[in-house]
């Protein structure tokens, strides 16, 4: 069979397909990396919680970046964006570590919301000192 003309071998997307998943969240692939199943499972569970918290922290920094106001707007606006970018680097490292352990990294924001330990802030705008306190206390609280 010609692999260039078959649906799976031609490099074309399978449009309108809804197949079964290939790995469920919370399960591990077998990998020859020298770590036992229980160790990898524990690490993936903990890393996914930190990954969820880090994604929430990224979003919190971006929200505060957008909502910043007042006389110190510009410096705080830039600083909060820098912190957000730093979180994205960490998010990627954590997710790829989960994958390298055979797990499934949490990615969908709705799933992230289920796993995070960070309390949801108000949807509206808070005073600048409250936003800054919320950001710094969330960043240092850990999970
Ligand atoms: Fe921006």
Automatic annotation (TrEMBL):
Lineage start: Bacteria, Bacillati, Actinomycetota, Actinomycetes, Kitasatosporales
Domain Ferritin/DPS: start-end pairs: 45-123
Species: Streptomyces candidus
Protein's UniProt name: Starvation-inducible DNA-binding protein
SUPFAM superfamilies, per the entry: Ferritin-like
UniProt keyword list: DNA-binding
CDD domains membership: DPS (cd01043)
Keyword Nucleus among record annotations: no
Pfam family membership, one: Ferritin
Family: Belongs to the Dps family.
